[in-house]
Design brief:
The protein has 374 residues and is α/β, with parallel strands linked by helices. The protein has two domains: 131 residues, Enolase-like, domain 1, CATH 3.30.390; 220 residues, TIM Barrel (Alpha-Beta Barrel). 35% of the residues lie in helices and 21% in strands. Strand 5, helix 5 and strand 6 form a beta-alpha-beta unit. The model has no long low-confidence stretch (mean pLDDT 97). The protein binds 2-succinylbenzoate and magnesium ion.
Length: 374
């Protein structure tokens, strides 16, 4: 494939309800969409970064900037460009994994469209539909939380994840467990606790959570290992797992028994697949996380969620859990499951009118033909 340029588009989609976590409240999802244009096909990718660097160091404007100045130009002249050549070409640039992931995904999408192969097939998916969970934000009161959870269970979600933080942890977990009984339930702290909170977090143990996600800082694998030894609730890592090596380290240290895989956080679907494989080799179950993606990101995440080692329901919720109008044909929950797209590439494309309506900025970054033969 010969790359002629990359369009970097900022979109803003209002969320159907505010999403509050320990790191802030989102009412609008600001996302970057990357469209690569090649001589053979176009491809799409979505950047998981949010408006502010609160989940990780990345944020939308920085992602757009690094893509424009460094990442897209680095693909000029890569001979025989395909998705496998993207990460090596971008490796000199430190960090910015979500920006890199969006670009690699778009190249992979274009490549697979040319070859008529779906993302699921390319990654090794073994399921046509995937079981879905939902991530429930912090609410203003326990009754409001119980109402929200009841609505999601009525909609068919098979697993509930509660966002927690100091002051909103044991009581909401207890209330949901007591009201809804034997549901699949887990909690996500997004790094809100310290090592010294181990005794407090042990109060979650009686509630049979599937897992406790990322209680401590991103760089605190030892702290997670110490905490894991003091809790019966399995620790799952999200923010800490930035690569297959990080996953191998976390497993070797006993820092987690479960891994949340987000392709953006780890630099793309190829690294996500490697993490899946490392975890599978160690008997560590994984599941596909989410970053409030539009249909573009969701489509690719569903392919990942269909891998054999994804043994727990993911944060791969239906379009209407996030948006009144998604930018692709909406993903609908059927018996708690979403269908894995089967068309070439990610299997979906943005609906032009909807896309235009939510676009707040567009930038075209031309890629000059390189000097290498391809
Ligand atoms: O920690 O998993 C997280 C959303 C934004 C940033 C971080 C996280 C989340 C979620 C929602 O939990 C997942 C989703 O439904 O997309
Ligand atoms: Mg998380």
């Amino acid at each position: 494939m010969k790359l002629s340029g990359v369009e970097i588009r900022t979109v803003e989609l209002p969320l159907v309800s505010p999403f509050r976590t320990s790191f802030g409240t989102e009412t609008v999802r600001e996302a970057l969409l990357v469209r690569v244009v090649t001589d053979e096909a176009e491809g799409w990718g979505e950047c998981g970064a949010g408006t502010a660097p609160l989940y990780s160091s990345e944020y939308t404007h920085a992602a757009a900037d690094v893509l424009t100045r460094f990442l897209v130009p680095a693909l000029a002249g890569v001979p025989g460009l395909d998705a496998h050549r993207v990460a090596p070409a971008l490796a000199p640039f430190k960090g910015h994994r979500m920006a890199k992931a969006a670009l690699e995904t778009a190249v992979l999408d274009a490549d697979l469209r040319v070859r008529g192969v779906s993302f699921g097939h390319a990654l090794g998916a073994v399921r046509e539909t995937v079981p879905c969970g939902v991530s429930v934000g912090i609410t203003e009161s326990i009754p409001a939380l119980l109402d929200a959870v009841a609505g999601y269970l009525d909609a068919g979600y098979l697993r509930i994840k509660l966002k927690i933080e100091p002051g909103w942890d044991v009581e909401p977990v207890r209330a949901v467990r007591e009201r809804f009984g034997d549901i699949l339930l887990q909690a996500d702290a997004n790094t809100a606790y310290r090592r010294a909170d181990a005794r407090h977090l042990a109060h979650l143990d009686p509630f049979d959570l599937l897992l406790l996600e990322q209680p401590l800082a991103e760089d605190d694998l030892i702290g997670h290992a110490e905490l894991a030894a003091r809790l019966t609730t399995p620790i799952c890592l999200d923010e800490s797992i930035v690569s297959a090596r990080a996953a191998a380290d976390a497993i070797a240290l006993g820092a987690c028994r479960v891994v949340n895989i987000k392709p953006g956080r780890v630099g793309g679907y190829l690294e996500a697949r490697r993490i899946h494989d490392v975890c599978a080799a160690h008997g560590v179950p994984v599941w596909c996380g989410g970053m409030l993606e539009t249909g573009v990101g969701r489509a690719a995440n569903l392919a990942l969620a269909a891998l054999p080692g994804c043994l727990l329901p993911g944060d791969t919720s239906a379009s209407d859990r996030y948006y009144r109008t998604d930018i692709t044909a909406p993903f609908r929950l059927v018996d708690g499951h979403l269908a894995v797209p089967t068309g070439p590439g990610i299997g979906v494309t943005p609906i032009p009118d909807v896309l235009e309506a939510v676009t707040t900025a567009t930038k075209w970054v031309p890629v000059p033909a390189g000097c290498h033969p391809s």
